Batch of 2 targets.
Target 1
Amino acid sequence: MLRLKGKVAVITGGAGGIGLATAKLFLQEGAKVVIVDIDREVLEKAILAIDHENLSICVADVSKAMDTEKFVETALEVHGKIDIFFANAGIEGTSKPISEYPDDIFDKVIGVNLKGVWLGCKHVIPKMQQGGSVIITSSVAGLKGFSGLGAYVASKHAVVGIMRVAAQENAKRKIRVNTIHPGPVNNNMMRRIEEDMSPSSPDQVMKGFEAAVPLGRYAESSEIAAMALFLASDESKYITGTTHVVDGGMLSS
Ligand code: NAD
């Protein structure tokens, strides 16, 4: 049986590694999907590559209220309702100690990772169906500090707070709200982080991260998508207001 048959899902950061893997999985499971991303070119490539009648796209910047309202309207116009909201768009910023961290990059990271999730909860949840599911992509950096990643760590901790409040505020409508906390994932974001931390030897950075993961490797985007599917489906209908770690054991050590 298809686990998301008849459901409509909106996925932000939908042209990126985790977002696109999740869009594909949700489509396979019978959902209609709107992928939202700031990057028009990558979105257009995605729609051509996936070529599915139940997939649509919307170019929007999640850090802007007007753009958020635009993607809500698009989803409602195209599909008539929203059951699942995957607030997944995120950026990594740079790697520098707090004392040297550039203010403009801090503002950008907070704008996308924190305000983007806030605006999503503010504008999407009121338009969602009763019994819906909101899934927010945090990170292991939302549960633990990582030296040099102050803005990212701050933003990913903060969305746990939003998740806990939104879960309480929306429980009467049976809308569940949860966070996912991936460890390092084998996609473009980690490639950028490795380059930023050590332009001359990104491979060494990768080896260091892998050594910190008891299972000895990065996750694939599809392995994070599998958790999103569980949280989106009725299999998790008694789960709300909590954190879900997918990290190969990283936080256990
Ligand atoms: P990614 O860079 O492949 O995807 C992120 C997507 O978000 C991109 O397509 C990008 O264009 C989009 N985006 C960026 N700013 C946006 C904005 N203002 N509005 C709309 N879209 C925007 O990386 P990913 O790994 O797929 O990241 C997805 C989420 O997972 C992020 O929130 C990230 O912080 C989180 N995460 C990633 C990792 C990892 O190792 N890659 C680990 C833990 C958590």
Target 2
Amino acid sequence: PAGTAEPAAGRVTVGGVALAALAGEHGTPLYVLDEAEVRARCRAYRDAFPEATVLYAAKAFLCRALVRWVGEEGLGLDVCSAGELGLAVAAGLPPERMVLHGSAKSPADLRAGIEHGVGRVVIDGAAEIGRIAAAVGPTGRQRVLIRVTPGIGAGAHPKVRTATDDQHFGLSIGDGHAQHAVARVLRQPNLELTGLHCHLGSGITDARPYLVAVRRLVGLMARVRDTHGVLLPELDLGGGHGVAYRPGDPALDLPAFARRVRGALIAACASARLPVPRLLIEPGRAIVGPAGVAVYRVLAVKHTGGRTFVALDGGMSDNPRPALYGVRYAPRLVGRHSTAEPRPVTVVGRHCEAGDVLAEGVTLPADVRPGDLLALPVAGAYHLSMASTYNLVGRPPVVAVAGGTARLLVRRETLADLGARDVGR
Ligand code: LLP
């Protein structure tokens, strides 16, 4: 991942640029995105799945430069709001290359998707069928997928498991709602059902749940053919591919995953005597997570209750993942070389909660002190896209590095920005 190159005397570089120099220029907290790493990850997906449509899941992180990078690497986009869609359109990605998601699409989301002409709208519930058909109008035509839940409990945390029957995404195959929705969509003259979608969950490092999903979705495709005489040409397997947050953590092996998914799809289609549908996949975290590094400055070191706390100038406002999912990171000292003994510490954020903990049970040099810089690798996904302004702390800037140069992509949120929306008295 970006930022893990071995330091020479503490000098850690990303994309040929020293993190300490970036922190000096842009301040901290700072997010650094390695353009070459993002592009390489996009290409790894294209190489592993040359026959598939690869859609980057914009919710992991989105800005105009990123849209351009993934677009140039041949990926489309999974968007889930008028906001994501509008940003991607403004960045120049053709809407035809986008898929619109959402379990509760607002009228504005649907209108944006249909008026811009997104490639696919993913139907997430029975009540959406009529809404989408009405928004498309009698003279329009919209390609749609139906999101189904194959009853699979996969994902790194209960909060990100979305393919069981007891959560609010998709239509269940098990209770027949998926089949019923297929029948209704097929009766809509202005909706063209191109296939089925499922997104199992997030942070999955094992291919097996996907193989089960392939078999269950192909089984449903066979029933659609038997019942309606319709061959669905597309199968969208969603995203969820897990990455390692700390050295030694498991990660999804992409080439092996691609081989096994392809094998399962071909086998399932052969036994159902179905043509093999075009595959769509929607990786978010695996494209951008390992390409990002967060850089913080140490504000305080406190010894209390038998522990050493190292407090940073960011925390749960720019990275709510530890508080939400109990995820732990592997921060490291950058910008100076220390020969001090490693010592166990708890790395905490600046926010007013005991739960603002970024890393526990990690070691840092015993002489870590205020003013030091800490880098948090694998910070590219679901940090800034989920960031808040808690405690009225502005959100950090994003800098892209490539070939030894850096450029600002997103500027820091200022106190003026924060105050501007407060229009009462
Ligand atoms: N497709 C759909 C329909 C999704 O809902 C998601 C993620 C993805 C694709 C991409 O999943 P990925 O490849 O990034 O795992 N905030 C959580 C993750 C939530 C994921 C939501 N949906 C986290 O920080 O772990």
